[in-house]
Amino acid sequence: MAKIQTKKVPKSSSPLIFLLHLLSVGLNCAAYSLPEKYFINCGSDTEVTSGNRIFRGDRNSDSISFSEPSYPVKNSSQLPDTLALYQTARVFDQSSHYEFDISSNGTHLVRLHFFAFSSAKNLYNAVFNVSTSHPFLLLHNFNVQNSSQSPVIKDFFLSITQGKFCVYFRPQESSFAFVSAIEVFVVDPLPLSSIPDNGPHVSPIGTKTNSYPGIHPKALQTIYRINVGGPMISQENDTLGRNWIPDDRYLYNPDTAKIVGPIANLNYLGIASEYTAPDSVYQTAKHMNKNNSRLSNNFNITWCFM
Ligand SMILES: *[C@@H]1O[C@H](CO)[C@@H](O)[C@H](O)[C@H]1NC(C)=O
Ligand SMILES: *[C@@H]1O[C@H](CO)[C@@H](O)[C@H](O)[C@H]1NC(C)=O
Ligand SMILES: *[C@@H]1O[C@H](CO)[C@@H](O)[C@H](O)[C@H]1NC(C)=O
Ligand SMILES: *[C@@H]1O[C@H](CO)[C@@H](O)[C@H](O)[C@H]1NC(C)=O
Ligand SMILES: *[C@@H]1O[C@H](CO)[C@@H](O)[C@H](O)[C@H]1NC(C)=O
Ligand SMILES: *[C@@H]1O[C@H](CO)[C@@H](O)[C@H](O)[C@H]1NC(C)=O
Ligand SMILES: *[C@@H]1O[C@H](CO)[C@@H](O)[C@H](O)[C@H]1NC(C)=O
User: Fold this and answer.
1) Which of 2, 58, 179, 253 is a plausible cystine mate for 23, CB 3.0–4.6 Å?
2) pLDDT by residue (tens digit) across 43-83?
3) Which domain holds residue 85?
4) Please, which residues have CB within 8 angstroms of residue 213's CB and are 6 or more apart in sequence?
């Protein structure tokens, strides 16, 4: 189950939309060999492997460009291998952007990584907007919380047409912006076709009002990506490098649900495939924990998201 927030520049209030099925993003293996897959290690001149992707340093890449003024910063402590991607970052004191050449129309995943540390600048103090040339405002007045000792990763699904694609970083007045890593890759064939263009509009208290039309041209931001009944699935085990978190902490009443699985043999039908989500997502589920010694078995399973 994925909860998705749509954002588009001219609208100030972003309606919340629940897509009560998996955010279905198909990908066949060949997609990774398409020309526009950008995995960028910002502020670095070295290659780092993270998950199943190789991130190239932006200081010696000829396939992407970024505007000056900007400069690299480095965390002087040696980070563990699992965090090697976050040893460096690029800092922008003024509005700047990365520019990518996109060679095919389609849904792209744009993933931004932020890992704050203190160097020449204290990256925790950065407050900035991130937007794109399409034109979507992805993050506004964004700041990495001091409490966060782990990377903050933001996933966006954007419908992009071929040509130049820019990601803009705009610091708030008297502040600056930074980014640790950027991914831009196509997730076609398929993707948004499996997400309905019309979704139920769910109010914050959970009542379904009317339908919300025109989802496809919006930028979709992943807010929660939940693996129901199963463990955390980290980027290494996901075809699109996504993280999935267990649902337990969102379950309103743990007594209402019981784990199903793991199911050994999956039989994919229709649009779902092992690229929509890893097998392990489908191998577990939860069902109603009915119990004849209850007064009534007329209840629902509720998950709460803040
Ligand atoms: C991409 O979309 C644009 C605008 O919709 C269109 O003009 C162009 O022909 C499309 N390119 C491809 C390769 O489909
Ligand atoms: C490098 O990052 C780690 C993790 O955030 C932090 O604990 C450490 O203080 C940083 N080192 C410097 C020199 O900022
Ligand atoms: C975060 O930490 C930095 C220094 O470590 C400090 O200057 C800043 O005020 C802190 N911000 C918050 C919101 O606590
Ligand atoms: C950041 O975005 C907000 C919301 O659209 C806007 O009010 C603000 O002016 C933007 N800040 C910068 C520095 O572009
Ligand atoms: C990936 O999945 C395998 C098999 O389920 C598991 O053993 C391994 O720990 C997982 N790796 C990560 C990084 O989650
Ligand atoms: C059913 O409910 C009773 C009373 O609350 C409890 O003792 C029992 O363990 C429950 N059975 C199952 C299978 O959950
Ligand atoms: C589902 O259960 C919760 C908690 O018991 C309750 O507050 C809510 O009204 C129920 N919702 C529906 C649609 O039955």
Assistant:
1) 2
2) 999 999 988 889 999 887 666 677 778 899 999 888 888 89
3) 39-186
4) 197, 198
What residues does ligand 5 touch, defined as CB less than 6 Å away?
234, 236-237
Three-state secondary structure call for residue 294? coil
Shared-domain flag, residues 193 and 270: yes
pLDDT in tens, 101-133: 888 888 889 999 999 998 888 999 999 999 999
Q: Are both 15 and 46 inside the same structural domain?
A: no
Q: How far is the CA of 88 from the centre of ligand 3 (A)?
A: 20
Which residues form ligand 1's pocket by a CB distance below 6 Å? 104-105, 161-162
- Let me know the angle formed at the C-alpha of 127 by 49 and 215, rounded to the nearest 5 degrees: 75
* CB distance 302 to ligand 7 below 6 Å: yes
Compute, in degrees rounded to 10, the torsion defined by CA atoms 194, 198, 203, 204: 30
**Confidence band for 26, pLDDT divided at 50, 70 and 90:** very low
Q: Judge whether 305 lies within some domain.
A: no
On whether residue 294 sits in a domain, the answer given is: no
